[in-house]
Amino acid sequence: MTEIVKAVILSIFGDEGPVPEVVLINEPEGIRVFKKDFIKDVSGVLDLGALLHISMKSVSLLMGEHTYQDGDAEVDSIKFFGILPFPDIKMDGLTYFFLIPDAVARGSARASTVTILVSEEYKNFFYDNMTELRSLIVEHAIRIKKMLTQDEFATVMVDLFKAINEFAERKVTHPLSSKRALKIVFAGLDSSGKTSMILGLEKKYGQLAAGVQPTKGVSRSQTAIMGLTISIWDLGGQDTYRSQYVKDAAELYLFDIDLLFYLIDIRDKNRFDESVDYYKQILHVLAKFEQNPPVIICLHKSEAPQESKGQVDLKENIAAARSLFDAASEDFSVKFFETSIFEPFSLANAFSYGLAALSPNRDIFRHQLEKLAKLSGAQGILLVNEKGLIMSDYAVDEGFGKLFEVSAPHFTSIYNNFERFVSGNSKKAVYMIEDRIVTFHVLKSDDFTAYVLAFLGDKNSIGKVEAHLGEFKENVRSLINSYI
Using one digit for the tens of pLDDT, what is the confidence trace for 374-385? Predict the structure, then answer.
């Protein structure tokens, strides 16, 4: 039996709060099962105190104040995943939050979590196998359609533990690395704007102004975002190179991709068919490799409007491109963005969304932002990193959310320019825009800085945000380290 998975814990919010209902521990002689009435007998690293902390943290981070307890939500609609760090016991947990129907409980349901624990050095087991592990956990959790006896709960968890161990023994054929790195690929035809977009994201405007030469073959670079190493592959789009990517050396260029950006020059409708054919070839290779990374399709304006050669109906081109590429995307998760190097926020929004799609904790972050917004009366709240990339967001309506996303990089840039003049440990800024107020709070971590931006309707809400910001910071501080 593999030693990767240390324990499986089923926690349920009972009369005494969140408690471990069933605990399974991986020991040399096999799986040991502890039911709630005998949890006190667990010793070692996972003693009673540690187990209670795991149950409390996993349930409270995802439960919130407003979900099922008021009877406003369908039980089956509330399901979240997240990777939670437990530094005190040097472990990380993949947690699934769900509700167990119970007619006698408040809201007719009980908040519950299944947490899979591994040692800190093995947490990449979660990231590298997230899709399969989610499926296994959900497959077993759906067997819990009501409150069961402790023996019945234990049977489900034992089956889950065995299924995960069997998967690990079959899947893990090499030592797991404790360092996580991402591979992000930018693809598209020649002159579609890939290199310009990368330079725009890196704010290398001098190189843009000097003119961008066509990429010959593949250009690779590395950057660090939130303590994570990201390898960026810019695939030159000339016809002579494309066959290498999808045929001759596909194992090198398209294997083990975490995120794919595909760019289309939206002004050149004559090449849409050629581009969609290349796009299909890339997806075919990914499917052959049994990979399904998020795909961000950038409907890219590669030149300023005044530089456009002749009149182009962009709305018509955008609609045509969306239709073509949407039909070609099949089972891949695809998101469209309209981007331009002359609108830097559009690049940041597309890239932010791509990173957020990779975050196992995106549900937790958004849930915590929603909770903070409702407690403070904010119309929208963003969590932004120091480069202006949006980590997570919440807004009362979609239109307001888009406006907030567009403006976030500008507020971040303004704050970074004036930050050296701000003193004190609790750094913040307040912006007045007619009758709207934007508050900007700094969230410090050991390795990096993040910002909380809130759009408020009146001055009274400023105090409400500050009153609840401490709890929000405490809830998400350690999670930022496992954002992606």
Answer: 888 888 888 888
Single pTM value for the model = 0.80
Q: Where are the domains of the chain?
A: 5-171, 181-358, 362-480
| CB 22, CB 9: distance < 8 Å | yes
Class of 362-480 in CATH: alpha beta
Q: Which CATH architecture has domain 181-358?
A: 3-Layer(aba) Sandwich (3.40)
**Residues for the chain: how many in total?**
484
- Tens-place pLDDT, residues 205-263: 454 444 556 677 788 888 877 667 889 999 999 988 998 899 878 888 998 899 999 99
